[in-house]
Amino acid sequence: MSQTAEQLVTPEIIADAMSYREYRTLIDDLLDQGKTTGSNHSEAMLNYTKMNVQRMRRLDKQLELTSSLKKQIQSVDEDWVWLVLTEAWCGDAAQNIPGIAKMAEQNDHIELKFILRDEHLDIMDEYLTNGGRSIPKLICFDADTLEEIGTWGPRPGEFQQKAMEWKDDPEISKKEWAKKLHKWYADDKGKTLQADFETLIAQWS
């Protein structure tokens, strides 16, 4: 992480960031007003957001963490902040955030916080993926010093590469790409995300 990023993620940013419950409530409240996060409140963006709420609700209920991952998370004895850059309309965020929230719930040493990408582009621009502002992006900080420990995102494991190959394929339309993306998540059932975090938590601890 650059010196700039260390200066940008301040205790004030962390204090003002949302919990998972607050993030979910914000999305519901915005939808009630016919809005989503960010500045684009088009019908398409609202539809993405509505689908994402359904995805998150389903994952909140159905996703189960493996016993080995639970054990590993519960063994963390340092205080961490997991800061996630996200937006309500982002399908990848909806597919991964509920699993991340379940992980953070396993250990009081891990504080999970959310900020909106488009309100914090200065921070986002320190964590680009192949030059793009891809979300969700999780940054793990030491809670006391706010020194960066590691990052994850925007997609699990090797799926990021596969998704980019599909996106660059001229024969796959944007609509078809989104369909393939969400089918992969449905088939994977959070396994690759959990495998990522088993590896990362071992490295971060």
Automatic annotation (TrEMBL):
Q: Which Pfam families match?
A: Thioredoxin_9
Q: Identify the SUPFAM superfamilies for this entry.
A: Thioredoxin-like
Q: Which InterPro entries match?
A: Thioredoxin-like_sf
Name of the protein in its database record: Thioredoxin family protein
**Species of origin:** Fodinibius salsisoli
